[in-house]
Amino acid sequence: MALRQIRFEGDPVLEKNCREVKEMTPRLVELVGDMLETMHAEQGVGLAAPQVGILRRIAVVDIGEGGPGPIVLVNPVILSSEGEVTDNEGCLSVPGKAGKVTRPQKICVRAFNEKMEPFEMEAEDFLARAICHEMDHLDGVLYVTKVTGGLFDVGEDEDDEYDEDEDAAKAADAGETAGEETDGQ
Ligand SMILES: [Zn+2]
């Protein structure tokens, strides 16, 4: 496995529609492994294939503590969604920034794993947000186009401070550790 180069906002690859995966080739298995490694190395909670320059419908999500562990989503589809939550979001392709985005509170997703075995899962709150964010990437959509109230700057220190001051209680409720709310996805 190896780290992949993250593509940043302004790179046309982030605005393209990704193609479905028909079969898991050894190359794509390697890509999934690299995406997981890159996401963890960058301390992100999600990463989509176009963020490393590959136009395939593959995303990985790992919200860390309180979450189900690393999830691989191949050809994901949202079967149903309910509710709305507006909260902060960030992206590894838009470093140092965050903004408020409204996402479903709960979703049901169907996808394939890295062995092309189909599965369905439900996700709520921060996990649902992370999955929706990654799925947008597969359609060439960046969260910055969905932000209400404008983007704001987050440095690593400011990020921690922000969470402690304003989001600590909420993060604790959601089983999240402070600092994850505006982590890149
Ligand atoms: Zn992102």
Description:
The chain has 185 residues and is an alpha+beta fold. It has a single domain (12-173), classed as Alpha-Beta Complex (Peptide Deformylase), CATH 3.90.45.10. Helix content is 26%, strand content 30%. The protein contains three helices and eight strands, in the order H-E-E-E-E-E-E-E-H-E-H. The chain has helices spanning 26-41, 125-138, 156-173; strands spanning 46-48, 58-61, 71-82, 85-91, 94-103, 106-112, 118-124, 148-153. The strands form two sheets. It has a five-stranded antiparallel β-sheet, with helices on both faces. It has a three-stranded antiparallel β-sheet with strand order 4-5-8. Strand 4 (85-91) and strand 5 form a beta hairpin. The radius of gyration is 15 Å and the shape is globular. It starts with 25 loop residues before the first helix and ends in a 12-residue tail after the last helix. The relative contact order is 0.19. Mean pLDDT is 89; it is low at 158-180. Bound molecules: zinc ion. Zinc ion is lined by residues 91-93, 133, 137, 185. The site of zinc ion has 6 residues, from helix 2.
Order of helices and strands: HEEEEEEEHEH
Q: How many domain regions? A: 1
How many extended strands?
8
Can you tell me the CATH superfamily?
A: Peptide deformylase
Question: Largest beta sheet, briefly?
Answer: 5 strands, antiparallel
CATH topology: Peptide Deformylase
Task: Provide the β-strand percentage band.
Answer: 25-35%
Descriptive tags:
185 residues; alpha+beta; Peptide Deformylase; 8 strands; binds zinc ion
